[in-house]
């Protein structure tokens, strides 16, 4: 079998991780603050990094809690806010681990359709008018996982209006925000309504995943409650890793790393779109303006399960659309371009198209949506 | 007020942390395995460190899971095994965070008296004969926190017999095992009965707390279940920190660090015992053979709450005995000698004795136990 090409994992390839910069940051961090890196620290995270994050967001430090990756931030937030039976709004499709995490807590998960300009806020309004009383709406506003779509400015405003009107919390899950390579940045919802929104982000996509540093920004009272959960889960998060991130951020390494990553992602996304247009014209997609992911809709009736197997036989991996929804999604797939070079993308799309030809016999040309 | 001297926190002073060794290990780890340190990795932990731990324990790797500190290992284990209402045996006194964690889960916590040679296994037998059906017994076998006592070889065997007879799991919580500075090492219970015991340990006391690396050793089926909990909590633990620990361990830095720590602890423990004998002859204690802690019983009727305040006024901190039990403990205290130099110990005990004289008026000379 040929070398595996993975469009499955939302993770960067090693060539766009600044390993030498991290080595230097580790060395400097241990020299500058040996006590801070080696001691327990506190559950709010490494204090200088917490301050750096607070400054970047223009909020007081007591609104920030730094965690072992943003997945853990999500888990703490759900532990604090979501009881079994509580209604939680999520996007359709959405990040599979969020779905699992909410369902594992016994939440009543309601999916609201995601459009190329973000959540269908009119559909959300209908759900609310029909009587749903959500505790929380989980939204990935920028370059959404898995769809790659971004919530428009107008929809951000409308969503916050609905949240105030129906008294629910907006969970703005924003790990990809720094990875915009086209178009204009939009204000975060947490900056638009700091009392109504809890914001999570991560250094996994801008430094590296193995460093496992994420954070929450939210109302001080909620952050204090989550701090207690963090103490009982692990006393304190990783001071060594957070000290390295702090040094990397303050020395300018982070901004350089973001530039490198964005340039690579832009090229990879463009290559992927071009290859799909050429090799697999049946694929429908919205060219992403940032982030890691491209969502592909195939003609209605396409058998993505069969495509998945046929692609795997050719050494190509992706994630089936059905993994990101409660039901349906059977003619869609997610392609991650973060971990593959342009050459691998060329080769991978050729193989994928070949697999599609093999499995697509008899499918109509109508596009599912 | 004079400079604070803290006998409160179970943490090492910076002078016994090998910061330069950690810097070197970080540098080498990033150079040798950049992909392994920077990628997500998996929920079982950094694979080479998992292998190193498995070798040290002489077990297959599938019995090992590396976590973000051993507190998190405890939390996962309790999540996997303890339902609300389940009976759990703990030592009296025991680590306050374990008590909180179990009570937070709604466990029916039964404390069994701890003697200078470890858990009173006859008292445990009486509890079992009276009908208790514990799911789990939580035991800190070496240099127990807070008492500093060690479970004897004979009692280890008897405890395992009782566990088999009454079908409960022994949770061997062993973060201090490497810090023996007097007497003979005893076999771990997990090596005596690998199917009946789940073992946890940590690098917090041998490398540093801020590195947040701990681990579990247990039956493969249970480890696989806990791996699933770990995936949903944080995807994977800290690869950077675990890569540094792996390099530190394999390069010999860890063994050097343990030697340094043990020598310092031995001197600190000896100084503390000598000072107490001289300055506070009313104090009753067992000289520790390792670890961080000395448990002090004061004469029955002593008011440790008042002592706590009077000591704080003199800049001396300790933890009240009552924090480590469900009720009672009012004439005992825990002194941690891990974070204080011999000079600080001399000064701290003088101040503590002065505080005691101030508060002890009218107390009888009978020792509480």
What's the layout of helices and strands?
The structure is a homodimer of 369-residue chains.
Chain A (H helix, E strand, L loop, with lengths): L4 E2 L12 H14 L1 H5 L8 H11 L6 E4 L2 H12 L5 E6 L3 H9 L3 E8 L2 E2 L1 H9 L6 E4 L13 H14 L2 E5 L15 H4 L4 E6 L11 E4 L2 H15 L4 H12 L2 H27 L13 E5 L6 H10 L2 E2 L1 E2 L11 E5 L5 H18 L10
Parallel strand pairs in A: 1-11, 3-4, 3-6, 6-7, 7-8
Antiparallel strand pairs in A: 2-9, 4-5, 8-9, 10-13, 12-13
Helix pairs in contact in A: 1-10, 4-9, 11-13, 12-13
How many helices of chain A? 13
Instruction: Assign an overall shape of chain A.
Output: globular
Count of domain modules of chain A: 2
CATH C-level of the largest domain in chain A: Alpha Beta
Q: Look at the structure and give the mean pLDDT of chain A.
A: 96
Largest interface: A-B, 46 and 46 residues
Spatially, the strands of the biggest sheet of chain A line up as 2-9-8-7-6-3-4-5
Provide a descriptive summary of the structure in words.
Two copies of one chain form a homodimer. Chain A is of the alpha/beta class. Helices cover 43% and strands 15% of the residues of chain A. Chain A has 13 helices and 13 strands. Chain A has helices spanning 19-32, 34-38, 47-57, 70-81, 96-104, 121-129, 153-166, 189-192, 220-234, 239-250, 253-279, 304-313, 342-359; strands spanning 5-6, 64-67, 87-92, 108-115, 118-119, 136-139, 169-173, 197-202, 214-217, 293-297, 316-317, 319-320, 332-336. An eight-stranded mixed β-sheet of chain A has the order 2-9-8-7-6-3-4-5, with helices on both faces. In chain A, strands 10-13-12 form a three-stranded antiparallel β-sheet, covered by helices on one side. In chain A, α1 (19-32) packs across α10, α4 (70-81) packs across α9 and α11 packs parallel to α13. Mean pLDDT of chain A is 96; it is low at 364-369.
């Amino acid at each position: 079998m040929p070398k595996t090409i993975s469009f499955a994992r939302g993770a960067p390839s090693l060539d766009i991780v600044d390993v030498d910069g991290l080595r230097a940051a580790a060395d400097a961090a241990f020299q500058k603050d040996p006590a801070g890196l080696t001691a327990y620290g506190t559950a709010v995270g490494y204090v200088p990094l917490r301050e750096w994050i607070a400054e970047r967001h223009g909020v007081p430090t007591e609104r920030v809690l730094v965690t072992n990756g943003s997945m853990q931030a999500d888990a703490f937030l759900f532990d604090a806010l979501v009881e079994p039976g509580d209604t939680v709004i999520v996007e359709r499709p959405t990040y599979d681990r969020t779905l699992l995490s909410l369902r594992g807590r016994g939440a009543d998960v309601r999916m609201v359709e995601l459009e190329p300009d973000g959540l269908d806020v009119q559909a959300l309004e209908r759900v609310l008018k029909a009587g749903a009383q959500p505790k929380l709406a989980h939204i990935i506003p920028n370059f959404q996982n898995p769809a790659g779509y971004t919530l428009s400015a107008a929809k951000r405003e409308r969503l916050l209006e609905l949240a105030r009107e129906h008294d629910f919390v907006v969970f703005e899950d924003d790990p990809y925000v720094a990875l915009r390579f086209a178009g204009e940045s939009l204000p975060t919802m947490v900056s638009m309504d700091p009392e109504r929104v809890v914001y999570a982000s991560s250094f996994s996509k801008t430094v590296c995943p193995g460093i496992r540093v994420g954070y929450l920004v939210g109302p001080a009272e909620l952050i204090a409650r989550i701090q207690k959960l963090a103490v009982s889960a692990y006393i304190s998060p990783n001071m060594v890793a957070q000290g390295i991130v702090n040094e990397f951020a303050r020395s300018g390494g982070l901004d350089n790393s973001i530039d490198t990553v964005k340039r690579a992602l832009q090229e990879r996304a463009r290559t992927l779109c071009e290859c799909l247009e050429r090799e697999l014209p049946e694929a429908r997609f919205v060219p992403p303006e940032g982030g890691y992911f491209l969502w592909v809709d195939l003609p209605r009736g396409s058998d993505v399960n069969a495509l998945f197997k046929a692609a795997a036989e050719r050494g190509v991996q992706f994630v089936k659309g059905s993994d990101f929804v409660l039901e349906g999604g059977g003619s869609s797939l997610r392609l991650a371009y973060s971990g593959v070079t342009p050459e691998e993308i060329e080769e991978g799309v050729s193989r994928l198209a070949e697999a599609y030809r093999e499995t697509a016999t008899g499918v109509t040309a109508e596009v599912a949506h």
